[in-house]
Amino acid sequence: QMADPFLYDTGERSRYGCLGHEVQIEHIKAYVCRPSFFTDKAVIVIHDIFGWLFPDTRYIVDLIAGHGYITVCPDFFKGTEPWKTTDHWADFADWMKAHDPTKVDKEADVVLKYLKEQCGAKKIGIVGFSWGGMAVHHLMLKNPQLTAGVSLYGRIIRDSEERYNLLNPTFFIFGEKDHTISYDQITLLEERLKQYCRVAYKIKVYPGQVHGFAQLKPEDMKPEDKPYIEEARKDMIDWIKIFI
């Protein structure tokens, strides 16, 4: 019996009117939001298991764009069904096998090409949540075109030396009460990065926060969580601003 990976109920969410628009990039649909002025800086947002249409993720895309970045959230599931709140957690392991967050390289390349050639982006960062956090960790090991990354509560997939040899600055955000990621995993990540990582990195754990905490829209936040959610988002943006 697998514990439900998500403690929050994604069914009860306020609606969100998006500021951006949808585009087709080769074989991938994507949601794009641009700032009101010209910039050659961009950020790719990788969604969680609920996919690129999930309002919380689009809210984050708009938030980052508001800080002056061309921000794009591609459908990394390539038109296949995202995980739904009505799905059975017993099937989750099989679903994950079919949606592997370490098999995102081709899609990432397509989006990078689009940002450079169509949008004139010169510096590109990446941010990912949960499933997307795992994908960010993978891409920051593989793709030198990504100037900086932020991985939010992505499970540490496997333990091997190459898992820690990040190519560019990466920031790892975790919630203290996330029951999908043990404190031991975070400690191991810290030890190994100290050992193998040759670039800037940061790990931060936010008190009392569960899995998925940093995506919530203001009206969906509990008052006691709000300061930590806002702090995590500010930290995420600050990291991007330092390097991109």
TrEMBL record:
<dbReference type="InterPro" id="IPR042946">
    <property type="entry name" value="CMBL"/>
</dbReference>
<dbReference type="InterPro" id="IPR029058">
    <property type="entry name" value="AB_hydrolase_fold"/>
</dbReference>
<dbReference type="InterPro" id="IPR002925">
    <property type="entry name" value="Dienelactn_hydro"/>
</dbReference>
<dbReference type="GO" id="GO:0005829">
    <property type="term" value="C:cytosol"/>
</dbReference>
<comment type="similarity">
    <text>Belongs to the dienelactone hydrolase family.</text>
</comment>
<dbReference type="Pfam" id="PF01738">
    <property type="entry name" value="DLH"/>
</dbReference>
<dbReference type="GO" id="GO:0016787">
    <property type="term" value="F:hydrolase activity"/>
</dbReference>
<feature type="domain" description="Dienelactone hydrolase">
    <location>
        <begin position="28"/>
        <end position="241"/>
    </location>
</feature>
<protein>
    <recommendedName>
        <fullName>Carboxymethylenebutenolidase homolog</fullName>
    </recommendedName>
</protein>
